[in-house]
Amino acid sequence: MKNLLENGTRCLLVQSKFSTFSFWNYVDVCKIVGAKYPATPLGLMTVAGLLPQQWEFKLVDANVEPLQDEYFAWADVVCTGGMLSQQLGILSIIDRAHQSNCPVIVGGPDPSSQPDVYQSADYLVLGEGEVTIPMLVEDFAKGSASGVYASHDRADMKKAIVPRFDLIEFKNYIQVGIQYSRGCPFNCEFCDIIELYGRVPRAKTSDQIIQELQTLYDLGYRGHIDFVDDNFIGNKKDVKGLLPAVREWSQPKGYPFYFSTEASINLADDENLLQMMRDVDFRFVFIGIETPENDVLSLTSKKQNVNKSVSEAIRKIHSFGIIVNAGFIIGFDTENDRTAETMITCIQDSGICMAMLGTLYALPNTQLTRRLKREGRLFEEGSTLKDIRVEIDQTTSGLNFMTGRPRSNILKDFIYVLTYIYNPVHYYKRIINTALHLRPSNKYKPGLRKLFKTGKAFLKLCRKVGFNRTTGWLYWKMFFTVLFKNPGALESAVNLAAMFIHFQKQSKFIIDLTLMEIEYITRFGEENYQESVFQEFWHSKTNTMQDMEVGKLR
Ligand code: B12
Ligand code: SF4
Asked: Would you say the CB of residue 168 lies under 6 angstroms from ligand 2?
C-alpha cells in the first residue's frame, strides 16, 4: 500500500446520492434556476481542509454528476460518509473503492452513530473530524492499514479551519453551506443533535466567519449562504456579536450574500436579534415546530415551544422579512383524533409554505430510542438501512417502534394532513398569507448575469405553473394579489410557488407509499403488527420505491 502521507497522494472525496424522494431534494426547482442540487457537501469540504494539505483532492458529488469508475482508478484513497439517509450509498462507495483496490476512510454522523454498519471501511473516523482526523493522520505515519478513531472530546470551534470551498463548482448548487456553531441548549427527546454535538453550543469567532465569507467572496461566489447550524441562536449573546461583524463586512461590498439558517422558535421573542438578522439580509429560517399540541410537546421535552402561539411567532418573524420553513411530526404517544385538524389549522393560519411533515422516527442514540427500548417497543433493526434496501428521510419512513395510537390511524392522519396542506388551493393560500405579512429588506442585489438568469428562470416558471391546468389560475391570482398589495414580497412569493412543483410530486409519492403501508397493516391486523411485519413491508417495497422514483420524480 502507498504511504498515505506522501506528497501527491490522490484523495477522492465522494458525496453519495440523496434520494429523489426526499423533501429536501428539489431538483425540479434547481433545473429551473440552472443548478443541479440544493446544498453543498460541507462535511467533505471540511474533511479536505483537515487532511494533509500536500495531498491532491478531487471532490465528486453524486448528486450533481455520475460517479465514474475512472475517478476510483485515479485515487490512492477514498473518503466518504454522511447521514443515515445516505447509508446505502456510502456502503456501495466502499465496495466500488475496494474493487479498485483503494482504501476507504469513512466518517460523518451515521458512521458515528452506528459504526458497526460500516465495518467494511478501512479507516473509521468517528465523531467530529476536527478531533479524530488528526488521530488518523498520526496513524498514517505509523503505516497502519486500518483503524477506528474515536474520542469523547468535542471540537474547539475557535480552532476550526476554513473548509475547502475551492473543491466544488458553485454553479451546481442553489446555496453554499457554512457553519457557525454546533450543539443546542434544548433537550428534545427525539433529537440526536444533542447526543452528537452536546447541549452547550460551541461557536466560531466572528473573525473566523468573516474569513470564510471572504474566502467565498474571493472565489467569486455571490448569493445564498446557509448557516447549517443546529440552532443558530443557541447562544444568543454570541450571535449578537457575530451579526454586526457580518454587517460591517458586507456593507462596503454591497451585500454580496443573503442568508438562511435553522433556529428555535424563541427567535420570535427577540426583536433586537431579528432586526440584526434583517440588517444582514437573512431571508429564511427553518424552525422545528413539530406539533402545536402542548401535552405532546411536554411529553417530548420540547419545552421551549409549549404555550407559544405558533401563528403569532411566525408572523413576527415574517414581519422582519424572514420566511419561516418548519418541521412537523406525527406519531407521538399522546396524540388523539383531533391531532390532524389541529396541525392543519396551525400550518394554514401561520402560512408556513414549506412544511416538512414526517412521522416520528427513533434515530439511533437518542433519549427516545433508549426509552422505547426500555419499554420494549423499539424495532431494533428499524434504524439501520443495510437490511432494508430503501433510503430514508423523515417523510418516507418512521414509526420504527410499537406506536401508542393504532398505527393505521397515525398513517391516515399523516395522509390527511399531507393531502390538505399540499392541495394547490391551500398551498397558494399560504403563499398569499406569508407574502402579505412579509416585510422584506433585500440587500443582496444580483449582478447583471445573475439577473438575466433569474429573469429566464422566472419566465420558465410562469410557463410551467402559470399555464398549467392545476396551478395556472392560482398562480396568477397570487401573483397579482401580492403585486398590488405588497410588491416587495413578490420575488419570495414566486419562489414559494416554484417550490410547490417539488412538493406536489413529493407529497403524492409519500401518500401513495403510505397507502400501501396502511393496506399492509390492515392485511396483518393492527393487533398482529410487530417488528417482523414492519421489516417485511419495507423489504417488499424496495423495488416499488425504486420504480416509483424513476417513474414519478424524474
Ligand atoms: C445542513 C443539514 C442538512 C441540509 C443539507 C444537507 C446536504 N448537504 O444535503 C438538509 C436540510 C438538506 C438536510 C437534510 C436532511 N438531514 Co440533515 N443536517 C444538516 C446539519 C444541520 C448540518 C450538516 C453540516 O453541513 N454540518 C457541518 C459539517 C462540517 O459537519 P458534518 O457534515 O457532520 O462533518 C463533520 C463530521 O461529521 C466529520 N465527517 C463528515 N463526513 C466525513 C467523512 C469522512 C471520511 C471523515 C473522516 C469525517 C467526516 O467531519 C466533519 C468535520 O467535523 C446536520 C446537523 C449537524 N450539526 O451536522 C443535520 C443532519 C446531518 N441531518 C440529519 C438528517 C437525519 C437529515 C435528513 C435525513 C432528515 C432531516 N432531518 O430532514 C435529511 C435528508 C437529506 C436529503 N437531502 O435527503 C441528521 C443525521 C443523523 C444521522 N444519524 O445520520 C443530522 C445530524 C441532524 C438531525 N438530527 O436531524 N440536512
Ligand atoms: S431545538 Fe432542535 S436541535 Fe435543539 S434539541 Fe430540540 S430538536 Fe434538537
From this structure: no
Q: List helix spans (H) across 472-553.
A: 472-485, 490-524, 531-548
Q: Of all atoms in ligand 1, which is nearest to the CA of residue 229?
A: 21
CATH of region 157-366, choose from 3.90.380.10, 3.30.420.270, 3.40.228.10, 3.20.20.70: 3.20.20.70
Q: Is the pLDDT of residue 83 over 80?
A: yes
Q: Where are the domains of the chain?
A: 10-23+41-149, 157-366
Q: Which of 14, 23, 83 gets mutated to test ligand 1 (max ligand atoms within 8 A of its CB)? A: 83
Percent helix, percent strand, percent coil in the chain, to nearest 5: 50, 15, 35
Pocket of ligand 1 contains residue 368 by CB under 6 Å: no
Strand arrangement, sheet containing 37-39: 37-39, 173-178, 223-227, 257-262, 282-290, 323-330, 355-359
Record: fold of 10-23+41-149? Rossmann fold (3.40.50)
- 299-333 pLDDT, tens per residue? 999 988 988 899 999 999 999 999 999 999 999 99
Instruction: Render pLDDT for 157-204 as a digit per residue (tens, 0 to 9).
Output: 999 999 999 999 999 999 999 999 999 999 999 998 998 899 999 999
Look at the chain and count its residues: 554
- Among residues 78, 79, 81, 80, the alpha carbon closest in space to that of 114 is found at 81
Least confident of 14-28, 117-131, 374-388: 374-388
